[in-house]
Specification:
184 residues, alpha/beta, Rossmann fold, 7 strands, 38% helix
């Protein structure tokens, strides 16, 4: 069984913000698979489907970013999912807009949702797809991540989001090592 989690903040006021990049990529994946989030449990909205005989869960935590680990750990426990079968998709301030970086281990890189997931799972060995949202040192980080992309940035972000969605589709049939080799 696989668990794919996109990080973001619930609520319409956060839609299309930089910090909701993970939610946006999940939306692209759901559209591609013709699925919708039809369950609400374990502090998340999610769906369960079968792909080549294997159960797959696609989820959006509803805990707000900094507590994302609560939803991830709840889903893992409820469905008895091993951490090696989890993929987390989230924004990254340290990457240029739309640039992807896939890793199977590492620190949170300052991303508080990922920090909470690492803290609650007790491991840094978590598959992740990070998408760049860039940074602006002249704007407070909290305000910046909750801002929207400029028109100039949007094309790069969307190209990266589509690539991230394609990486998730590829992960349905391939090891995360193979996904990293193909999409990094």
């Amino acid at each position: 069984m696989k668990l794919i989690v996109g990080l973001g903040n619930p609520g319409t006021e956060y839609e299309k913000t930089r910090h909701n990049a993970g939610f946006h990529i999940i939306d692209l994946l759901l559209k591609e698979l013709n699925l919708e989030l039809d369950k609400s449990k374990c502090k998340a909205k999610y769906t369960v489907f079968r792909h080549n005989g294997e159960k797959v869960i696609i989820a959006k935590p509803q805990t707000y970013m900094n507590l994302s680990g609560e939803a991830v750990i709840s889903l893992m426990k409820f469905y008895d999912i091993d951490i090696k079968d989890v993929i987390v998709v989230h924004d990254d301030l340290d990457l240029p807009v739309g640039k992807l970086r896939l890793r199977h281990s590492g620190s949170c890189g300052g991303q508080n949702g990922m920090r909470n997931i690492i803290d609650l799972t007790g491991t840094k060995d978590i598959n992740r797809i990070r998408i760049g949202i860039s940074n602006n040192k002249l704007i407070d980080t909290k305000d910046y991540v909750l801002s929207r992309f400029s028109k100039e940035e949007l094309e790069s972000f969307e190209a990266g989001a589509i690539k991230a969605k394609n990486a998730l589709l590829y992960a349905l049939d391939n090891s995360f090592e193979d996904v990293m080799n193909k999409f990094n």
